[in-house]
Structure formats: structure tokens, C-alpha cells
């Protein structure tokens, strides 16, 4: 799977750890920046990751900003992008399995590299269960979320 990775200056110190974790799982990284610790506006990089996910060029996305909050808010403004902050492995996997989350957001000033090394695999190894037998309740709930998205246009 191709995974779009983006960050702002607050997430930049963890970006290489994220990339290494993605590569270690055999996935391909699409690095959309930023490429230095110079101050930048996180929405610019959120948009780049979101567009890769929207177009299907990337199957999933990972965003790192200072807290993860701004990235999650901005990403969820993009149609078809379902993002959440996850600073634990349970949420990273369950968000995909139950809620069709396709973008993981993390706070570079909140967690450290060792946690990234376990959260990224939890996110990327998880599969949405709504398309599988017994996943009707997940599909129903995600369908309601998608309807909310359509109704707000």
C-alpha cells in the first residue's frame, strides 16, 4: 500500500520515525513534506496528504503536527478523508476496523518515537470490518457518517 506522510514543523522531528515504520511494514511512502524544521502552516500539508487519499494514489495517510489536533480538524474537512488523533495502539487499529479511518494524526510534541513505532503498525495492519461478514453494524454507522458528509455540502 502507498501511504502519504506529511507534517508541519511541530511534527518534523518524528517524520523520519514514521517513514521508517511504514517502510518496515513493506509499504511505500509518499512524502509530501515538510522537509525542514522551519515554521510552516499545517493545513498546507494536510491538504497534500488528503488529496493523495482522495485520489486513491495513497491507501492511507499519516499526519504529524504539534498536537495532532489541528491536522485532524483540517483533514476531516476534506470529503472522503476520515482522520483521528491516535496516541495509542487500540484507537489506531479500532478507528480503521470500526470507523473506516484512513488518516492517522499524531502529535509530535505529545508522543515520542517508541510509541510511533507501535502506533503506525497498528494503524496500517488494521482492516475495515464493515466489508466483512458480521460487519453490518460498522457499515451502517459509517454509512451514516458518509450521509452526514453529503448532507453538509
Q: How many domains make up the 3D coordinates?
A: 1
Strand line-up of the largest beta sheet? 2-1-3-5-4
SSE string: EHEHEHEHEHH
**CATH topology name:** Ribose 5-phosphate Isomerase B, Chain: A
Terminal CA distance: 30 Å
Mean pLDDT: 97
* Main structural class: alpha/beta
Query: Residue share in helices?
Result: 40-55%
Count of extended strands: 5
Largest sheet: 5 strands, parallel
Can you characterise this structure?
By secondary structure, the protein is α/β, with parallel strands linked by helices. The chain has a single domain, classed as Ribose 5-phosphate Isomerase B, Chain: A. The chain contains six helices and five strands. The protein has helices at residues 12-24, 42-55, 69-75, 89-99, 113-125, 136-151, and strands at residues 2-7, 28-31, 60-65, 83-85, 103-107. A five-stranded parallel β-sheet has the order 2-1-3-5-4, sandwiched between helices. Helix 4 runs parallel beside helix 5 (113-125). It is globular, with a radius of gyration of 15 Å. The model has no long low-confidence stretch (mean pLDDT 97).
Could you give the topology of this structure?
Layout: E1 2-7, H1 12-24, E2 28-31, H2 42-55, E3 60-65, H3 69-75, E4 83-85, H4 89-99, E5 103-107, H5 113-125, H6 136-151
Helix pairs in contact: 1-5, 2-3, 4-5
Short description:
Helices cover 48% and strands 16% of the residues.
Question: Which features does this protein show?
Answer:
5 strands, 153 residues, Ribose 5-phosphate Isomerase B, Chain: A, single chain, five-stranded parallel sheet, alpha/beta, 48% helix, 6 helices
